[in-house]
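Action item from last week, closing it out:
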Amino acid sequence: MGSPSAFRARSQPAGSLRGVLPVPFGTVFVYAERPDAITGIELSLEPSTEVSDSGEPLIAEALAQLESYFEGGFTSVNAVPVRCIGTPFQRRVWDQLRAITPGTTLSYGQVAARLGSSARAVAGACRANDFPIVIPCHRVVSEHGLGGYCGATDGPWLAVKRWLLRHEAGAISIEAGQHGR
């Protein structure tokens, strides 16, 4: 099964403001359609040399926080204001994901148990997440491996998930099968 080279937020209006940040695995695009919240984050496996914040202070702040994340400053990314559009259940899952600290992983089943739901439903909410990294769905793994990332269960997106977990020093818990450390 092939994997797309970009994970796109569900829809960004034509007039969206956009910021661009090159990252070790490709490029991060940040979108906002108004100045009070980010409306989506797109990950691309394609490299970019462009760095742009569109002149919008919110985009510039989000890019600065993401740049800090990629340099090892993990706590600041949670400060990015996002406008989540989803079902009440999806928003509950995303709140749980934001509470997972860097370097820690939880299984889909562990998150589901906290919400009185199923692992499959949690995986679906992770797949619907328009804010990868800021809402860290990469910190949720299956009971017996990585699970999926950006809608893919194989290919280059799992390498990105593995990279993010290693970057956060969470790879040890994945390889040892220890969740929620």
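Closing note: The two ends are 32 Å apart (CA to CA).
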